[in-house]
Design a protein that fits this description.
The structure holds 3 protein chains of 3 kinds. Chain A is built from 5 helices and 5 strands, in the order E-E-H-E-E-E-H-H-H-H. Chain A is α+β, with helices and mostly antiparallel strands. Chain A has 2 domains: about 80 residues, Ubiquitin-like (UB roll) (Roll), CATH 3.10.20.30; about 70 residues, DNA polymerase, domain 1, CATH 1.10.150. In chain A, a hairpin with a 2-residue loop joins strand 1 and strand 2. In chain A, helix 2 packs across helix 5. Chain A is globular and about 50 Å long. Chain B folds into 3 domains: about 45 residues, Uridine Diphospho-n-acetylenolpyruvylglucosamine Reductase, domain 2 (2-Layer Sandwich), CATH 3.30.43; about 110 residues, Uridine Diphospho-n-acetylenolpyruvylglucosamine Reductase, domain 3; about 110 residues, CO dehydrogenase flavoprotein, C-terminal domain (Enolase-like, domain 1). Chain B is about 35% helix and about 25% strand. Chain B has 11 helices and 14 strands. Helix content of chain C is about 25%, strand content about 25%. Chain C is an alpha+beta fold. The model of chain C has no long low-confidence stretch (mean pLDDT about 95). Chain C has 17 helices and 31 strands. Chain C has 3 domains: about 170 residues, Aldehyde Oxidoreductase, domain 3 (Alpha-Beta Complex), CATH 3.90.1170; about 325 residues, Aldehyde oxidase/xanthine dehydrogenase, molybdopterin binding domain (Aldehyde Oxidoreductase, domain 4); about 150 residues, Aldehyde Oxidoreductase, domain 4, CATH 3.30.365.10. In chain C, a hairpin with a 5-residue loop joins strand 13 and strand 14. The chains are: A alpha+beta, B alpha+beta, C alpha+beta. Chains A and C meet through helix 2, helix 3, helix 4 and helix 5 of A and helix 1 and helix 15 of C.
Chain lengths: ~160, ~300, ~775
């Protein structure tokens, strides 16, 4: 087993990590960096619980080989709130009651953040489409969709 | 019984060659225990499932230094092997000139997967269910391959040999896929049927493409490709010939859909029965053709 | 809308206060079992599993595995001979002598990494002699079927479970009420039909994970994603012959349970490994695939119903024969069968009833608790049969349901007299929300449109003496810490408990904290987090504990002020005297007490309130007739309806809108009640449209998210109306009953009814997949 030394910027901080070739980004985050907010729900790219933002876009971190990430910029759920202030999607999902067991929540929030970054005015379908790769068994989804929609409105109102 | 591993087995090594030559040589030297990968989305799943027992995962993203989408109005479109599907679907030239490709990309798995998955990877994995393969074939895609003997072009029609089998040999690395300028006045559709609305593998996928062509007796030409109903992505030449030769109306479109029904050879599997698949091939092909016809017919 | 933060919410019961468990869940700070760091000493466990549904184990050779560097050791059934089980002790830690389902644990391996343990598993050879498997419950119940548990007659079980020795029937529950044969002769319409409901999986997004450590002195600690820390302590300690006080279960937040994390399942494996390899923590996580095929399933059901009514549509008789596909072990499933039996009429008033609810061993995955505990399966049959009968007698389904639904004072099939229920209002609300009288036109020529409604009831299914307890600790900053043993599994119980404590005590909701994680060493006892029983049962314990603390506070102040405690009250965290209009903040009292006059000493001291609750009135039922005074504690009832469109070209069902109404007694937190109604309905809808374990020769063919599809955000109707009906529960805290499970109970039947309304077709074996619907349309000549 050979290791690869990679340098990444994670939640704003530069980190250097030695990773074996069979390690996924998900495993690196949880087991090497202690960033356990990113969840392992299936390890096969289907449930979305491990969603993080990699170089600006939402990815399933279980579907990324860690060794590939040299030079990458990564945001995880731990980096979503900045200096103590919740991100708008975090605020809205709390207000709308879109959290129950909470296990899918980090992944959903990262998908939502990535959506609003690329599309500040999503339609309801855009939202459902963007989180269709995030399985939730508790909420029935609608409150999450409303929360993301309200976050978009609140953010565009703030911009104006 | 499913023996999926918790993660990638610990014999797996990650290899990042510095050049195409180096990558190709490595893959030849370790034939049978190495494979090139791009987005890794199929690769990790199959390794976890124990279907592939590859030791060396060779990262071939961006090795030719042109990892991008280029569009030349005189020549056409080239998509670098490592360009993820989301980037393809959002590219202005793709949306404007190759909307069928964007539509096909959109139907693959989930947004997060498409941030990693690539069209070239989809083509090289050669799954009969590959969502972007039909569009790539109908748009006359040509795969640019670097192999032990240098560069060569592989037209997609004729590229697929069976589930997971293609013309690629050990040491071959696909570097891009190119599409000529599509004919004037064209329209295309990809209709995918999954068990639920989004994110599923195709029970049936129908890609169709049509355009006016005065050299055809009917005045139009259509192309049809079917996913998940044969060992390889399936073209339907009989239906295409019919639509080129017979004056087109609803009945002829239905007749073409019937020919698609007759030419596919699906199997029963966990996702659907052969009987249902054939029915869906007919219904969805008809819907795709009707939709395209409504857009390209000159008397409209 | 939820109440904004930074407020002081007094008298919070009935208000939609903000949940107290979710802030950490949106920041990634919430700790689930797999998130706990154990350091470099952590070992990992993987398991060699049976590839066969039914086979004798002839030989196990793990010699090659033991030689692999990093492997610490193995364990097999020989190491752990004792049986374990919640309602029937029929299960072993590892297979002993034979395997009974595909995926059964045969050998456990402990190693320094998960990968090494996995590689070691591949090096283990097991020789089997194949036996004929039992793959159908009806056949399994017959005398011709091979015996799966020849020792069934010797297994321990409580007196309300009725196994049949020398058969595969591990419980046979019966009801005989009235004269059913005579009743048939008076029926104007009779429907007789068999329904088949497939196995489904719970699919919590967090797979099972457990870590166990055994100290050299024999003390065992288990960290687990579990709904049942106390039941796990009791069952595992007994089977391992250690005192319960030496067995500690720590239960962090859990990422969804839905019943599959109740009782003991895979946790037994790391505990067993830890007993054998002491001193280091051992972690075992199920892969998603294992979660699908080795874990508790909702058992399959074959339900044969005959039901009849008079010419006015009044129900006269029901014969209900249920064969539950209990799987290889029915330690939990026997009680699903019992619950299905005593509730077998559904929420309908039927004078003559004959029920046989039969739990059958098969060589399928092990059945366990699943949200609804048998009720969704039962209602899928009973409610559809009612819909069919309504059509046959020519009554509108809503009218039929209203005419026949249970009402307070009705004598149920078990002889129990039911309390006041608001089910009729629920039906009316749902019908109104769906504009029941209006037949909407399809949105396109290739669509068919229809509406359907179904009813539900469910009682907490549990032993008659399942208890709860709680502590209310007063802090010197004016806050209150509530300790409970029930688990926050996403349903919001910590919030509800804080509301109940705040209301009973007289302090603002925001001042009450509920302590987690549940730890059997420090948390008060709770039977299990199941059965929609916490709001009611644990809520009573919390209320009692809060009242106890309140009394202690008031007694101290009364003594200090020389007043009668009756003249004192606690409001907004202050003790006030109605007589003198004096007031004092409780924070000045509850820890340090109050001084006596003239420096004459002190009164009071740290105040801790204690409370518990256990129903005392549930009686046994006669083994032959199912008759008894009170079968259950209570029923939560309700109704659900959907409007759907069917695509004639693909067979796909699209649910356009839905309405749910349930009588919850009293909504402690109305918004959370609505969350349960919405989420539960979508889980039910998902099972109606997509879900089923595809079992072929005992092998699950779809053990992954790729092929076991559940509803995504794109599959659900945007419009779900929810209605809360409140007919108070006489022994519930503030009148409350549970609502956790009920919303998914009627969903399949509601979709089936709408499908009939749209197409005229009855499909009685869910899921109603696009393929199944299309082929049914084709067979019926409705499409070409």
């Amino acid at each position: 087993m050979s290791f690869h030394r990679i340098t990444i910027r994670i939640n704003g901080n530069l980190e250097q990590v030695d990773v074996p070739g069979n390690l996924t980004l998900l495993q690196m985050l949880r087991d090497k960096l202690g960033l356990t907010g990113t969840k392992n729900g299936c390890a096969s790219g289907e449930c979305g619980a491990c969603t993080v933002i990699l170089n600006g876009d939402a990815v399933n971190s279980c579907m990324v080989v860690a060794a590939e990430c040299d030079g990458a910029e990564i945001t995880t759920i731990e980096g979503l709130a900045s200096s103590g202030d919740l991100d708008m999607v975090q605020k809205m999902i709390l207000e709308e009651g879109g959290v129950q067991c909470g296990f899918c929540t980090p992944g959903i929030l990262m998908s939502a953040r990535a959506l609003l970054n690329r599309n500040p005015h999503p339609t309801e379908f855009d939202i459902r489409d963007a989180i269709s790769g995030n399985l939730c068994r508790c909420t029935g989804y609608n409150r999450i969709v409303t929360a993301i929609s309200r976050a978009a409105e609140a953010e565009s109102a703030a911009v104006k | 019984m499913n023996n999926a591993h918790p993660g990638l087995p610990d014999f797996v090594e990650y290899v990042k060659p510095a050049s195409l030559e180096e990558a190709s040589k490595f893959l030849v030297a370790h034939a049978g225990e190495s494979r090139p990968f791009l987005g890794a989305t199929d690769c990790i799943v199959r390794m976890r499932d124990g279907i592939w027992k590859t030791k060396y995962l060779v990262d071939v993203k961006g090795l030719d230094g042109t990892n991008q989408i280029t569009f030349d109005p005189a020549v056409g479109l080239t998509i670098g092997a490592a360009v993820p599907m989301n980037k393809v679907a959002a590219h202005p030239a793709v949306i404007k000139h190759y909307p069928l490709l964007a539509e096909a990309c959109h139907w693959v798995a989930s947004y997060q997967l498409r941030s990693r998955a690539t069209i070239v990877g989809n083509i090289c994995n050669a799954s009969p269910a590959g969502d972007t393969i039909g569009a790539s074939m109908l748009l006359e895609g040509v795969l640019r391959v670097f192999g032990p003997d240098g560069y060569r072009d592989e037209p997609l029609n004729g590229f697929f040999k069976g589930p997971g089998r293609t013309n690629l040999k050990p040491g071959d690395i696909a570097v891009s896929v190119s599409f000529p300028l599509p004919p004037q006045g064209n329209s295309g559709r990809y209709i995918k049927l999954g068990r639920n609305k989004l994110g599923d593998l195709a029970i049936v996928g129908v890609t169709a493409f049509g355009y006016p062509d005065s050299s055809a007796a009917s005045g139009y030409r259509f192309r049809i490709a079917l996913a998940s109903v044969a060992p390889i992505p399936l073209r339907v030449p009989k239906a295409e010939e019919l639509l080129a030769s017979k004056p087109i109306d609803e009945a002829v479109l239905a007749e073409a859909a019937q020919l698609a029904y007759e030419s596919c050879t699906p199997i029963d599997d966990v996702r659907g029965s052969a009987r249902y698949r054939k029915q869906m091939v007919r219904n969805l092909t008809r819907n795709a053709l009707v939709d395209i016809w409504s857009k390209i017919r000159k008397d409209a | 809308m939820v109440v904004a933060q930074n407020t002081r919410t007094n008298n919070p019961v009935g208000k939609s206060v903000a949940r107290n468990d979710v802030l950490e869940k949106v920041t990634g700070g919430a700790t689930y079992t797999d998130d706990i760091q154990f350091g470099p000493g952590l070992l990992h466990c993987r398991v060699k599993r049976s590839p066969h549904p039914h086979a004798l184990i002839k030989k196990i050779d793990y010699s090659k595995a033991l030689k692999l560097p990093g492997v610490k050791g193995v364990a097999t059934g020989d190491d752990f001979p004792d049986l374990i089980g919640l309602y029937l002790k029929d299960r072993c830690f590892f297979a002993r002598g034979k395997v009974r389902f595909v995926g059964e644990a045969v050998v456990g391996v402990v190693a320094t990494t998960e990968e090494i343990a996995e590689a070691a598993v591949d090096l283990i050879d097991v020789e089997y002699e194949l036996l004929t498997p039992v793959l159908d419950p009806e056949f399994g119940a017959s005398p011709e079927a091979p015996l799966i548990h020849p020792d069934l007659g010797n297994y321990d079980h409580p007196n309300f479970i009725f196994p049949v020795a020398n058969s595969n029937i591990s419980n046979h529950f019966k009801i005989r009420k009235g004269d059913i044969e005579a009743a048939w002769t008076q029926c104007a319409a009779i429907v007789e039909h068999t329904f088949r409901i497939p196995h489904v999986q719970h699919v919590p997004i967090e797979p099972h994970v457990a870590v166990a450590k055994c100290e050299d002195n024999g003390q065992v600690t288990l960290w687990a994603s579990t709904q049942s820390p106390f039941a796990q302590r009791a069952l595992l300690a007994k089977a391992l012959h250690i005192p319960e006080s030496d067995f500690r279960v720590i239960a962090p937040l859990i990422g969804g349970g839905f019943g599959c994390k109740a009782g003991v399942t895979m946790e037994a494996i790391p505990v067993a490994m830890a007993m054998k390899y002491k001193g280091q923590p051992i972690k075992f996580r199920l892969t998603r695939e294992e979660e699908f095929y080795t874990n508790f399933v909702r058992q399959g059901l074959v339900i044969k119903i005959k039901v009849g009514c008079d010419k006015e549509g009044n129900l006269l008789a029901l014969q209900n024969r249920m064969y539950w596909d209990g799987g290889a072990y029915t330690e939990y499933g026997v009680n699903v069968t019992r619950a299905g039996g005593y509730s077998s009429t559904g929420p309908y008033d039927i004078p003559n009833v004959a029920t046989d609810s039969i739990c059958v061993y098969t060589n399928h995955p092990v059945g366990g608790a699943y949200r609804g505990f048998g009720m969704a399966e039962l209602h899928t049959g009973v409610d559809q049969a009612m819909d069919m009968l309504a059509a046959k007698i020519g009554l509108d389904p809503v009218e039929f349901h209203k005419k026949n639904c249970v009402q307070g004072g009705d004598v149920l099939a078990t002889g129990m007299v039911i309390h006041d229920v608001g089910i009729k209002e629920c039906i009316e609300k749902v019908a109104q929300a769906l504009d029941w009288e209006i037949k909407d036109k399809p949105s396109a020529p290739n669509k068919l449109r229809g509406k359907g409604v179904a009813l539900a009831w469910k009682a907490p299914a549990m032993p008659p003496n399942a208890g709860s307890s709680a502590l209310v600790k007063m802090n010197s900053d004016g806050t209150v810490t509530v300790s409970v043993g029930g688990q926050e599994i996403g349903q919001g119980t910590f919030t509800a408990m804080a509301q109940i404590a705040a209301e009973a005590l007289g302090v603002p909701y925001e001042n009450v904290k509920v302590s987690g994680p549940i730890d059997t060493r420090y948390s008060p006892y709770e039977w299990q987090t199941v059965a929609s029983r916490l709001t009611w049962s644990m809520g009573n314990a919390v209320r009692n504990a809060a009242l106890d603390a309140r009394k202690k506070v008031l007694d101290v102040v009364a003594e200090a002020w020389g007043e009668d405690a009756k003249d004192l009250d606690i409001k907004d965290g202050y003790v006030i005297s109605y007589k003198t209009e004096e007031s004092v903040s409780i924070k000045d009292i509850v820890v340090y007490g109050l001084p006596k006059p003239n420096d004459g000493g002190w009164i009071g001291g740290p105040i801790v309130g204690a409370g518990s609750f256990m129903p005392s009135y549930v009686t046994g039922l006669d083994a032959e007739t199912g008759q008894g005074n009170r079968a259950v504690v209570h029923y939560t009832t309700g109704a659900q309806g959907v409007e759907i469109e069917v695509d004639k070209e693909t067979g796909r069902i699209e649910v356009l809108r839905a309405a749910c109404a349930f009588d919850v007694g009293k909504a402690i937190n109305p918004d959370m009640v609505r969350q349960q109604m919405e989420g539960g309905f979508i889980q039910g809808l998902s099972s109606a449209l997509f879900e089923g374990c595809q079992l072929v020769d005992g092998v699950m063919r779809n053990p992954s998210f790729v092929d076991y599809r559940i509803a995504t955000a794109a599959d659900v109707p945007a419009e779900i109306d929810t209605f809360i009906i409140e007919h108070a529960q006489d022994d519930g805290p503030f009148g409350a009953r549970g609502i956790g499970e009920h919303p998914l109970v009627p969903s399949i039947a509601a979709v089936a009814a709408a499908l009939y309304d749209a197409t005229g077709l009855r499909i009685t074996n869910p899921p109603f997949s696009a393929e199944k619907v299309y082929l049914a349309l084709l067979e019926a000549g409705l499409v070409e």
